[in-house]
């Protein structure tokens, strides 16, 4: 059981790092560098390409996070865990819904607008994606904090 728990938690942590770290990088490093150095057409194409690749990893992270989280929550502890784990799961559900919204609504619209070379509309979609990513990043940081320190707050 200990090895299974170690595997599940290890996979969970790796997936968390990919998702939260990617959002942090995209929002605080890549976005700002692209704004300072690229004109809108190049910046929007770059961000679309980055999201195209990053979102594949986010979908994989979401699957790993839910599978490993439920494995530990239900399979190991039969749902008997502290308030912090229940809060983490609620935040994870919200984060997953926000990511699905990003992917299926503004990201797809961004791709269409870039293909049409409608730069003002593409920039508006990118702004919407940025705003929701920032919300998800903050939720992710809170969730990670609960995951690492929550049991000590009980």
TrEMBL record:
Stored InterPro entries: Cu-R_CopD_dom
Cellular component GO terms, alphabetical: membrane
Domain Copper resistance protein D intervals: 50-146
Keywords: Membrane, Transmembrane, Transmembrane helix
Family matches, as Pfam families: CopD
Membrane-crossing segments per the record: 6-30, 51-77, 83-104, 131-153
Protein name: Copper resistance protein D domain-containing protein
Species in which this protein is naturally found: Thiohalocapsa marina
């Amino acid at each position: 059981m200990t090895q299974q728990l170690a595997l599940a938690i290890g996979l969970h942590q790796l997936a968390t790092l990919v998702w939260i770290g990617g959002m942090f990088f995209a929002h605080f490093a890549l976005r700002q560098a692209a704004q300072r150095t690229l004109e809108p057409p190049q910046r929007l194409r770059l961000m679309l390409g980055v999201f195209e690749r990053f979102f594949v990893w986010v979908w994989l992270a979401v699957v790993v996070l839910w599978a490993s989280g439920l494995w530990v929550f239900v399979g190991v502890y039969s749902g008997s865990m502290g308030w912090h784990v229940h809060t983490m799961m609620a935040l994870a559900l919200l984060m997953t819904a926000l990511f699905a919204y990003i992917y299926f609504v503004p990201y797809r619209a961004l791709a269409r607008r870039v293909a049409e070379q409608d730069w003002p509309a593409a920039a508006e979609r990118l702004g919407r994606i940025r705003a929701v990513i920032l919300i998800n990043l903050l939720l992710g940081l809170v969730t990670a904090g609960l995951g690492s320190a929550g049991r000590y707050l009980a």
